[in-house]
Write a structure and sequence with these properties.
17 strands; homodimer; six-stranded mixed β-sheet; alpha/beta; 24% strand; five-stranded parallel β-sheet
């Protein structure tokens, strides 16, 4: 038996406790598979006295997190502190600078600082390199980063997209099933612990955008460009939208989608609610499940689906990274060396072709439909169907829902610009693409 | 740039041609990702003159396949000849004996000789070891072996199961959609090229059994035991079964399922048609698509779905293996060294709990139902629902369909034994478990 892989755990929230639990319960089989034991030599968290439901007395406690990176008895630091900057980033930098491996579940940190950290990992140990792994940062227990980096490595990937945020998917699929409105379902999700007290990160799409930026870099060999992810959350979706979508044969899902085959110029990255056709595999994904689709030019369409969060699945991904390190599997964090990653500007979304769902809230008076349809005509948008709800909502407001034929996104934007000064359109229209 | 990985291709059927096509089209990105080029230094097939739609003049032709393994300029042999024994096995043995790497898409050879070949790979090069990889052998372009070996390596896997044969799935989902009977749909599938002229390997479940045996070994750290896979094909499924299943809220799929968590004794491996509940992700898998579910004790239920066959997807998996080798990623073919794999006997299926669908073909005369239900009672099988078709089929035959409550499989077997002498039961009943 070879020497153990010695790890230090920073952060003992649910995921940290999950990692300890996993290493304890599955230790024997992990040692067999990794070829050597994975041993926790130090643990560290803000509050030592907190009851985490696990016995920590077996593990040496380190009070000062920053010291973990310097310990001679540590091979790999597992960063589960969270936050894009602050202590997590300081620890990550120190760890790699000390030539040690880093495993993290921190999507925000990787989305913001992944390039810097990958460079530091390459240069660690005077150029020998140190492993940097973050499978748990995207889609929880689903090994989709490994799938992209290794499983479909032979493919020119055209698109990668999926359901990347379990909270949003829980809310949308609950709205779908119950017919209730967003605010009510959000409140319930918070009460049940499926949504945070401050849910903005999830429901505004930022968490999904972090994950999408990481997926895109791996899929397309491009530098992470989180700032270029266009992000729209789910807060404006109404029960009426879900009902309309259903009538059209669709469900609404928050989809993170990136497009950037080698032949294309810019990289398209967007998180937004989309209409997903009922026959598409993502339409069947409900509750807190995540799912990612990868479209390769030889593999075709692959789907990876599973639990996107939770202590067990996330710990599963963290420890898979540790087993890779213990086995000596060390592919580049972003599939190719950082200097080989392309810095691609954002694609012009105006050229994108597709069908679009538009929901207008209008005042219930004559001429409104004429105004909307004239704007569409003048912008060259071809209308496939238009439904005006019979009964006015509170405040005399009426919903007009319109689905376009396939056409360029720029035409839809132009039509909306033409309507911007309108007295009849009460709030900015809700715009959702139909996923094709 | 490092030295190229030099490969020899044995077998130039659709998959071999697909590999050449892939390496030509995606060569640039593969070189970047692998860190070095993958170069074809020799090709070999039975018939040199056959038109394969690709230009072979660029590649040195080798007339004698057995010589590929001995060539000093070859690092890895890619075996795409097929067949569990014969030339493919001879080449595989020679290749590993010569200390070279072997990549194969040959599920039959791995199911029958995987243990021998994995041992040879370990001992190759005087114990230095040589890579042996076979991602393409299971589920085509879906990187599910990598998922098991690495992605869920931290988990005690309870079950692995899925739709492993595209031909059967095409036939079953077409029967479902069209209401037509098996023979007719098989004939159409043959005409369309979705089924072989001699379809036995697919429709009898043998192809799926090969794949299941490989999945089980990887999932449970057990030695491959293809002989222990209980295999039933789809030839006896009638349109009436599909209609009955639908009425109950199920579809019929050919499912390969293996169960063998570390805590269990024996290993359960079975390929047979099952009733899959409509809300299960496998129920939505239709046409020639494959899908595999892995249930880990921390990751939870993971689904991998995609094209299970075809030149593009299979080539994608073959070249992913080659990229792994070029990158120096060399985990044990069966996750742990061969000597660490357990030889587990088959589990006693009688202890398995579940609900069962039973279809009896009976003569249309009084007392038949009493006879069947008495046998069930005497064996302790509790009946959940029983339907007797109103109109007799040709020959005065009537179908009686029965679904049991959850109970041990042994009780169902006992009930069927009690009915074995019956004059009323025309052919052996069709027995299908309800997937839970």
């Amino acid at each position: 038996m070879s020497a153990p892989l010695r790890i230090a755990l920073a952060g003992l929230g649910t995921v940290g406790a999950g990692v300890i639990n996993l290493l304890e319960r599955n230790g024997g089989l992990i040692t067999r598979r990794a070829g050597r034991p994975i041993e926790i030599v130090a643990v560290c968290a803000r509050d030592r006295s907190k009851d985490r439901g696990i016995d920590l007395s077996r593990y040496p406690w380190e009070d000062d997190m920053t010291l973990l990176a310097g310990r001679a008895d540590v091979d790999v630091v597992v960063e589960l502190v969270g936050g894009s900057d602050g202590p997590a980033l300081a620890l990550a930098r120190r760890t790699l600078a000390a030539g040690k491996g880093l495993v993290t579940a921190n999507k925000a940190m990787i989305a913001h600082h992944g390039m810097e950290l990958a460079e530091a990992a390459e240069q660690a140990g005077n150029g020998a390199g140190a492993p940097l792994k973050f499978e748990a940062a995207v889609a929880g227990g689903i090994p989709v980063l490994k799938g992209l980096r290794e499983g479909v490595a032979a493919n020119d990937v055209a698109r990668v997209y999926g359901i990347l945020n379990g909270t949003c998917n829980y809310i949308l699929s609950t709205m779908e099933r119950s017919g209730r409105d967003f605010a009510e379902v959000l409140g319930e999700a918070q009460a049940l612990g499926y949504a945070e007290a401050d849910p903005a990160f999830d429901i505004e799409g930022i968490d999904a955008a972090h994950k999408l930026a990481i997926l895109a870099a791996l899929a397309f060999g491009s530098r992470i460009d989180f700032g270029a992810v266009e992000t729209t959350g789910i807060t404006r979706i109404r029960a009426a939208d879900i009902a309309q979508a259903e009538a059209l044969g669709y469900v609404i899902r928050l989809i993170g989608l990136a497009e950037g085959a080698a032949s294309q110029g810019g990289l398209f990255q967007r998180v937004q609610p989309c209409l997903v056709p009922l026959e598409h595999p993502l339409a069947a994904v409900d509750g807190a499940t995540n799912a990612v689709v990868i479209e390769g030019n030889f593999a075709g369409r692959l789907l990876f689906q599973g639990a996107g969060a939770g202590d067990g699945p996330t710990a599963s991904a963290v420890v898979a990274d540790l087993i890779d390190i213990a086995r000596g599997v060390d592919t580049a964090p972003f599939s190719v060396p950082v200097e080989a990653l392309e810095a691609r500007g954002p694609a012009d979304p105006g050229n994108r072709l597709g069908r679009t769902y538009l929901r207008f809230n209008v005042t219930d008076r004559p001429g409104v439909l004429a105004e909307i349809t004239a704007a569409m005509r003048d912008a060259g948008v071809s209308i496939e169907s238009l439904i005006q709800e019979g009964r006015p909502e509170e405040g005399g407001e009426v919903l007009v829902v319109l689905v376009t034929h396939e056409g360029p996104e720029s035409a839809v934007i132009q039509a909306l610009e033409l309507l911007q000064g309108s007295d009849s359109v009460i709030e900015p229209p809700l715009v959702m693409p139909l996923l094709a």
